[in-house]
Specification:
Layout (H helix, E strand, L loop, with lengths): L6 E10 L6 H19 L3 E9 L3 H10 L3 H18 L6 E4 L3 H16 L3 E11 L4 E2 L17 E10 L5 H10 L4 E2 L1 H12 L5 E2 L1 E2 L15 E2 L1 H6 L1 H4 L6 H4 L6 E5 L3 H15 L7 E4 L2 E2 L15 H8 L1 H11 L6 E2 L2 H31 L11 H22 L3 H22 L8 H25 L4 H10 L37 H18 L7 H5 L16 H5 L3 E12 L2 E10 L4 E6 L7 H4 L3 E5 L5 E3 L2 E3 L2 E2 L1 E4 L4 E4 L11 E2 L1
Parallel strand pairs: 1-2, 1-11, 2-3, 7-12, 11-12, 13-14
Antiparallel strand pairs: 4-5, 4-6, 6-8, 9-10, 15-16, 15-18, 15-24, 16-17, 18-21, 19-20, 22-23
Helix pairs in contact: 2-3, 4-10, 11-12, 11-18, 12-15, 13-15, 13-16, 14-15, 14-16, 15-16, 16-17
The chain binds zinc ion.
The site of zinc ion (ZN) has 7 residues, from loops.
């Protein structure tokens, strides 16, 4: 009989929309997504919320600079963020925009509750104001200049609504004491406690000098200011005033960067206490990925963006690196060098190699069906015990957000299996009945270990573990597997293996880093002040995607395009670019390297020697980090735009011009 599942509600910060996501946002969101997947595999009814914070003077300014209305600017931004998470396979259940009407209502409702309970009053805020930028400069002193435009600041007083934060010093300290797990990691708690102990000042929560914000009902031109608006998004995402109906509030955990922990552990619980609403159970603040400041520069093309890494190595590689490399809660170092090193050692040579080796041996010796485990030897049982023990350890680690330790435990089992295969040498055994039985035992043991490892690593590496799962012939979805039922010994002999696939193709480090940096550069250069949907930035221009020319052109326009007969000399696939083939093409006077978006429709070998039409005077460009010098002409066929390469029915001379 199905029981009602326990709920688990978790959130990322609601990201500010004056820029596009970088590695820091990706880190918080990946952590949240990992916990979401993990909790689901532990049988919870999970909701994960992310979203965009779309109000404030910075958005006003950015929209003005882009020459579009704020509403359009933030709609583009929200779309860019949402589609990036989609592309990276991060599937939040709720994407809340602070311009959504349901959020606007939730903020106004929370304000009303706080006001009715006597924690909101009208007062005056005095600060240093830049008339040019229409904004207060927080923490500036009289007589200082504006940090944004350099003009002199003026002391300005405006009417504001204040929140009586000072009334919550004792309630907050009591709350921290009664809920010792509320602030994580432990080390951050002291910092917050002493901040609260040192006394809390009332907080201005509305502005009359900002236009782009949620109006305070009946009090226009007051609009809500930053935190009262943004923090409420966690609640508005799961019902706002009707939160009880959805049953998700309070949040089980808010994941945040360490820079915004104070707002989440002081302001937010105080607002909720004032409104007499349930408080979140935990706020988890993670550290930052640090990079050598000198190394991070746009001109060097090494600004760290998630998409180029995902394109080159796969998103699982980035997820694995971020969670494996640093202790969650502390700062860590980010470098492409260690990213690619870990990719090659832990993923390509570790998990990837174990899976493909095991599958190949089963294919060869047992006609692609999982063999039987016959008489077991002590070393078989030792490995079994290790894998079984890892189940308990990994679950315990993941419960405590110790991602690095959990992955360490999984990878130590993978290493043990590698060692086991190397010492048992199933490939050296003969065809006698006894040898065949021994082979079966060894390979069943390795395959069973892989099954367990895939299940345990799935929350972190969702794509690649699902591939191993399918390779082992498992037909159920790994997402819905209940980790609590995972035991050694469940792999059924006779199960036919799935189709083999490359998990983590090994990459050459220098080349991989160059490609990632070059793709990051392309992305940064194409992201102008006006945000575009992220998907548009990611689509490489292929012959099939060339848009139709709407108007008629003169012959002189056509003559500008120099097309010649070329002959394909070599063709190869490009790691990290599923759609592209790298071609070398003889165009008579020289050999050109050209990338073509035809990899899904043409086998590289079938193209060698083929005569094609090449646009030779196209400016060189980089596609997915690979230089392309020219274009192979192809028709775009059918709704999916299948490319069909243009060719000749008669033999033609290489280099001949098309007119
Ligand atoms: Zn200014």
């Amino acid at each position: 009989m199905p029981e009602r599942k326990e709920k688990f509600y978790l959130t990322t910060p609601i990201y500010y929309t004056n820029g596009l996501p970088h590695i820091g946002h990706t880190y918080t969101t990946v952590v949240c997504d990992t916990v979401r997947r993990y909790k689901r595999m532990r049988g919870y009814d999970v909701v994960m919320t992310t979203g965009t914070d779309e109000h404030g003077v910075n958005v006003e300014r950015a929209a003005k600079k882009a020459g579009i209305p704020e509403s359009e600017f933030v709609a583009n931004m929200a779309e860019a963020w949402r589609s990036l998470w989609d592309e990276l396979g991060i599937a939040a259940d709720e994407f809340v925009r602070t311009t959504d009407i349901k959020h606007v209502r939730a903020v106004q409702w929370l304000f009303k509750l706080c006001k009715e309970n006597g924690y909101v009053y009208k007062g005056h805020y005095t600060g240093q104001y830049c008339i040019h930028d229409n904004a207060f400069v927080n923490d500036a002193k009289p007589g200082e200049n504006c940090p944004d435009c350099g003009r002199p600041l003026e002391t300005l007083t405006e009417e504001n609504y204040f929140f009586k934060l000072s009334a919550f010093q004792k309630p907050l300290l009591d709350f921290y004491r009664k809920n010792p797990e509320f602030i994580q990691p432990e080390g951050r708690k002291n910092e917050i406690v002493s901040f609260v102990e040192s006394g809390l000042k009332d907080l201005s929560i509305t502005r009359t000098t900002i236009r782009w914000g949620i109006p305070v009902p009946g009090e226009e031109p007051h609009v809500f200011y930053v935190w009262f608006d943004a923090l409420t998004a966690y609640l508005s995402a799961v019902g706002g005033p009707d939160y009880e109906k959805r049953g998700m509030w309070p949040a089980d955990v808010h994941f945040v960067g360490k820079d915004i922990i104070r707002f989440h552990t002081v302001y937010w619980p105080a607002f909720l206490m004032a409104a007499m609403l349930p408080l979140p159970k935990q706020v988890w603040a993670h550290g930052w990925f640090l990079m050598d400041a000198a190394k991070m520069s746009k001109s060097k093309g090494n600004v760290v963006l998630p998409r180029p890494i995902a394109n080159m190595l796969g998103m699982d590689a980035l997820r694995y690196f971020m969670l494996r490399e640093v202790v969650f809660g502390q700062d860590g170092n980010f470098s492409y060098d260690s990213l690619v090193t870990r990719y090659n050692s832990d993923l390509a040579n570790g998990l990837g190699n174990l899976a493909s080796r095991t599958a190949a041996l089963i294919e060869k010796n047992f006609a692609g069906k999982v063999p039987k485990s016959a008489e077991r030897q002590p070393q078989d049982d030792a490995l079994a015990r290790e894998a079984q023990a890892a189940i308990g350890e990994v679950l315990e680690r993941l419960d405590k957000m110790e991602f690095a330790r959990a992955l360490e435990a999984i990878w130590s089992v993978i290493a043990a299996a590698d060692k086991y295969l190397t010492s048992e040498q199933p490939w050296a055994l003969g065809a006698s009945e006894a040898d065949q039985a021994r082979k079966g035992t060894i390979l069943w043991t390795t395959a069973e270990l892989l099954r367990i490892v895939s299940a345990l690593a799935h929350p972190v590496l969702p794509d690649s573990t699902a591939k191993v799962w399918a390779l082992l012939g498992q037909t159920t979805s790994l997402d819905s597997l209940e980790l609590d039922g995972l035991r050694w010994g469940q792999l059924v002999p006779g199960t036919p293996l799935g189709k083999s696939q490359t998990l983590f193709p090994r990459v050459e480090k220098t080349e991989a880093i160059e490609r990632i940096e070059s793709m990051a550069n392309e992305e940064l250069n194409s992201a102008s002040a006006v945000p575009k949907p992220a998907s548009a930035l990611a689509t490489p221009a292929t012959p099939a995607a060339t848009p139709a020319v709407p108007e008629k052109i003169g012959i002189e326009d056509f003559a500008k395009v120099e097309m010649r007969v070329g002959q394909i000399k070599t063709a190869e696939r490009i790691v990290g670019a599923d759609k592209l083939l790298k071609l070398t093409v003889d165009i008579g006077t020289e050999i050109r390297q050209i990338c073509a978006g035809i990899a899904q429709y043409y086998e590289p070998e079938s193209l060698i020697g083929r005569k094609v039409v090449v646009v030779v005077n196209l400016a060189p460009r980089k596609l997915r980090g690979v230089e392309s010098n020219g274009m192979v002409v192809a028709a775009s066929v059918g709704p999916e735009g299948r490319p069909v390469i243009a060719g000749f029915l008669e033999d033609v001379e290489v280099g001949a011009r098309l007119k």
